[in-house]
Specification:
The chain is an all-alpha fold. The protein has 13 helices and no strands.
């Protein structure tokens, strides 16, 4: 077989391994998925009327439309923490060191983790999106092309954050440390435009919310789904995704290539 065929075979084997782990131990994915679902229900049913009135909306449905895009991206940030924990577990249990000695394509181990995590992220987004639709979210103005672009943005954002999470897992001494180091992937959406517009934030706090990867991605997704103005957020979101993906890939590959201590 050609080297490309062997590489594809090894990557598919590692992907199957990671999907089997996720199926046999679903508690981690479910626990991470619970956070965005609970936040969605909390902000809609507890704060929805007040937040909608403060933003000039007529009722709670206006705030549902506003908050769902941010929750969908928060779902990705929450789900990819599982990739960091999974990689750190492999590192601490010695299986990565074993893989280094085997006649397999070296990048297949990381690719298996990344592709598996992206698939789990997409599935989690679909589940949270179903909950959002069940409580009243509607996207009436989005065209088929805009829906396709929104899905592409979610997949690309999941890929970028997964590579960062894999790097965190490779650099962590154990699964607990990996989970803690990946917490910013959940905290950053909380200080973005996910729950309140940038204009409503204090002047000293607004740059923190504005100059980070989640805000342009949220504004782009919101524009695609609701027909609001995107401006230059689309290019910023794309730049953040590509930059984080390259950074995470280089970081992960560098840590994977180091000899175990």
């Amino acid at each position: 077989m050609s080297s490309l065929t062997l590489a594809v075979r090894d990557c598919s084997t590692m992907l199957r391994r990671n999907l089997l782990h996720a199926r046999r131990y679903p508690s981690l994915t479910l626990n991470l998925l619970l956070t965005p679902v609970m936040l969605l229900l909390l902000f809609v049913y507890i704060f929805g009327d007040v937040m909608s009135a403060g933003m000039g909306g007529a009722d709670r449905s206006d705030y549902i439309a506003y908050v769902v895009p941010g929750i969908l991206l928060m779902t990705i940030g929450s789900t990819v923490i599982g990739a960091a924990v999974s990689v750190a577990t492999d590192m601490s249990e010695g299986i990565i060191a074993r893989f280094r000695t085997m006649a397999i394509h070296r990048s297949s181990v990381l690719i298996g983790h990344v592709v598996g995590s992206v698939l789990q992220s997409v599935a989690s987004v679909v589940l949270v999106g179903a909950v959002a639709v069940a409580i009243g979210f509607r996207s009436k103005d989005a065209t088929a092309l805009e829906w396709l672009a929104a899905f592409g943005l979610l997949a690309l954002f999941a890929l970028a954050l997964t590579w960062i999470a894999v790097g965190m897992g490779m650099a962590s001494p154990n699964a607990e440390a990996a989970s803690n180091s990946a917490m910013p992937l959940i905290l950053l959406p909380l200080i973005s435009s996910a729950f309140t517009p940038l204009e409503a934030m204090p002047g000293w706090f607004r740059p923190i919310a504005e100059y980070q990867p989640f805000t342009p991605a949220i504004e782009t997704l919101r524009g695609l789904l609701l027909g609001t103005e995107i401006g230059n957020n689309g290019w910023l979101a794309l730049a953040w995704c590509l930059g984080l993906a390259v950074l995470g890939h280089r970081w992960s590959a560098s840590k994977f290539g180091q000899d175990p201590k």
